[in-house]
From TrEMBL:
Family of this protein: Belongs to the ABC transporter superfamily.
Superkingdom of source: Bacteria
Protein name: ATP-binding cassette domain-containing protein
Domain annotation ABC transporter: ranges: 2-227
Pfam families: ABC_tran
Keywords of this entry: ATP-binding, Nucleotide-binding, Transport
Transmembrane domains' residue ranges: none
GO molecular function, one term: ATP binding
Naturally occurring in which organism (per UniProt): Nakamurella flava
Keyword Repressor included in the entry's annotation: no
Length: 317
């Protein structure tokens, strides 16, 4: 388990991470989501003891990283797939890592097999594609067979096949009971990978809830209505206490109604004698909702309330 409590990091006048508190549980994939510059990498680096915090703490199974005995057997991380020596082979790279960290050499073949690199184990890693480098990074993270794994933007720049493979690999690791924290700036990606989301914007917590709960709240749907007599329909809805918003012009002119069943809107139109040219439920764009949520400074003010509402609704337990 990873526990982050009141974690804060300041670089001069910039507050990169601002009083973050969250827990990452074993057995599921937890997505660490936020736009570029939100503070995800800085938080992960503090969890891994690569960066000191200005205040607060990050604990791995109750201890700071620096206090862990043989840390690679407890925590594995993939922060940057490009740090490998370009002329060293994948096997030599892993053997070097095993030797310098006092890990059994037999693990090298095991992890190469796990990530599907056995057939290219003797090839220079500098000639690897980004997807292969990511696999080698995963192999390195798994060398000590750790129970806790952190991956920073692991699918960035990968092709669809590579993304699919990494996604399933993360899920597999979690299903083995490991604690898996994966960062991304794409909600659509995390929605397909993570069971739980910790969402941050400008270093502050925006949401800490199940992925299903977050996507449901973020992508609120509405009913779209087109008619040659939109003003009459708006008036009839208003008389029934239902607010509508006019959108578009000419043939695209429509009313949007949120929070009212489609049948009720159809009935009101029928009773008012208004012909309809369209009556449809539209899904909100998840990515758009996420961008609005993380970009709006008003929302930052509500972050603690949102987090409190989430935990009091029992989503995390
Ligand atoms: N070493 C540093 N010195 C000064 N500012 C830094 C440093 N590292 C990060 N920052 C700043 O802290 C903020 C958070 O950066 P961070 O890299 O943690 O965000 P991120 O969510 O991981 O974004 P990205 O996906 O773009 O990497 C940014 O404003 C960044 O410019």
């Amino acid at each position: 388990m990873i526990e982050v409590v009141g974690l804060t990091k300041k670089y001069g006048s910039t507050t990169a991470v601002d009083d973050l508190t969250f827990t990452v549980r074993p057995g599921i994939v937890t997505g660490f989501l936020g736009p570029n510059g939100a503070g995800k990498s800085t938080t992960m680096r503090m969890i891994l003891g690569l960066e000191t915090s200005s205040s607060g703490r990050a604990l791995i199974d109750g201890k700071p990283y620096a206090a862990l005995e043989r840390p690679l057997t407890q925590v594995g991380a993939l922060l940057d797939a490009n740090w490998i020596h370009p002329s060293r082979s994948a096997k030599a790279h892993l053997k070097f890592l095993a030797a310098t960290n006092n890990l059994p050499t037999a693990r090298v073949a095991t992890v190469l097999d796990l990530v599907g690199l056995s057939s290219v184990a003797n090839k220079a890693a500098g000639k690897f594609s980004l997807g292969m480098k990511q696999r080698l990074g995963l192999a390195s993270a798994l060398l000590g067979d750790p129970k806790i794994l952190l991956f920073d933007e692991p699918v960035n720049g990968l092709d669809p096949e590579g993304i699919f493979w990494i996604r399933n690999f993360m899920k597999q690791l979690a299903s083995e009971g490991r604690t898996v924290l994966v960062s991304s700036h794409l909600l659509s990606e995390m929605a397909q990978t993570a069971d739980h989301l910790v969402v941050i914007g400008q270093g502050r917590l925006i949401a800490d809830c199940s992925t299903a709960d977050f996507t449901e709240r973020s992508s609120q749907s509405f009913v779209r209505v087109r008619s040659p007599r939109l003003p009459d329909l708006a008036a009839a809805l208003q008389a029934a206490g239902i607010a509508s918003t006019a959108t578009g012009n000419g043939p695209d002119a429509a009313l949007q109604v949120t929070g009212t069943p489609i049948e009720q809107i159809g009935d009101i139109a029928g009773r008012a004698g208004v012909f309809l040219h369209e009556l449809s439920v539209q899904g909100g764009s998840l990515e758009q909702a996420f961008i609005e949520l993380t970009a709006s400074s008003v929302q930052y003010g509500d972050a603690s309330k949102a987090a409190a509402a989430t935990s009091s609704s029992g989503v995390r337990s």
